[in-house]
Amino acid sequence: MAAAPNLIRKIDNTPLREAVRKVAGTELPSFKIYSKLATLRKARRHALLAGESVGFVPTMGALHGGHLALIRHAAQENRHVYVSIYVNPTQFGVNEDLKSYPQTLAADLEKLRRLNMNYSKEDLRGQITAVFTPTTNVMYPGFQPSSEIDGHGSFVTITPLSLILEGASRPVFFRGVATVCMKLFNIVQPDVVYFGQKDIQQTLVIERMVKDFHLNTRVRVVPTVRENDGLAMSSRNVYLGERRRKVATVLVQALRAVRTAFLDGRTERNHLMAAAQKVISDELEKQQALPPRARALFEVDYISLADPFNLRELEKVDPRRGAVLSGAIRMLPIEEPQAGENTGTGDGQTPVRLIDNLRLEAVTTILLSSLRRKMITP
After folding, report:
1. What is the pLDDT of residues 324-359, one digit of tens each?
2. Active site residue 271
3. How many helices (H) does the chain have, and how many strands (E)?
4. Which of 103, 347, 370, 376 has its CA 20 to 30 A from that of 28?
5. Which residue in 46, 64, 67, 80 is the catalytic one?
6. Cα separation values, 333 from 129, 161, 291, 349, Å
């Protein structure tokens, strides 16, 4: 299909117009792109009146395989898939990395266009029909709330769940996430929303918000998508570069060591956490022994062993209930970058905070008997 200059000129947002122009080239995307509420709501009403379901995938762009997996799940279950691309400022603290967060709108739209081309050849229920790319003035029409902890604005807060783990390290994060998701859910009114398990605390916050505020949508949590070596896919991985990328798997390795200990019959916190600590200590000692030109140092923010429903820390795992094992590390800026070294976006000087989690699944009755035998064996 030939590009349509008149259609592109009608787009009401200059950065969006330029991004679409780059994607369009000789062919327009098969979905419509909206930056204003009225036109998106009109499209949503048409779907409602036609009795066609809408699945919604909210993103901040810099799309990767994890996002595409969410979209695929939505296309399998709904006639329409709506995707939002919006970097929400209110979930970044005053000293966090909002300005350096990757914004790749043209590349994101191209990925979505190619995804839809593939979907047209597959036996899926639906495909992407709308991409919502609002400005901050659209999302926060009164004024943009402050990012200070005690800042002014219209907020949604889900406590105490949002105050622990990630919330303790990033005090305004879940306030910003819940607020922008409430706005997006009100705008899109999706039948189902899709989130990844990698951000497990976020999914619990959203599920609580949907339940507590009687929102007419269902929350679907999709398993974490990983690289071949186990690293969870994340928009921030582009900052790692080769040196830090090799070390970044220490987090998932530590979590997997805990899971192995659990499957071997360990349920006490001290035994399980010791397995994670050994992996982390061994890798940190290894890196510290290397010269600055070769090493990649990191700091551990937290490792958590928590209840799967409320994320309260556990002293012992009940095998019938299971647990959530989660953690966060901060990859530090690289020292003495070498000529020709792949240092990633930001030349290796941007600290990269990585999160991950694994579920210690509840054990069936038969397996529980076996597990108890292991627990009492000297």
Report:
1. 999 999 999 999 999 999 999 999 999 999 999 999
2. no
3. 13, 9
4. 103
5. 67
6. 40, 31, 15, 4
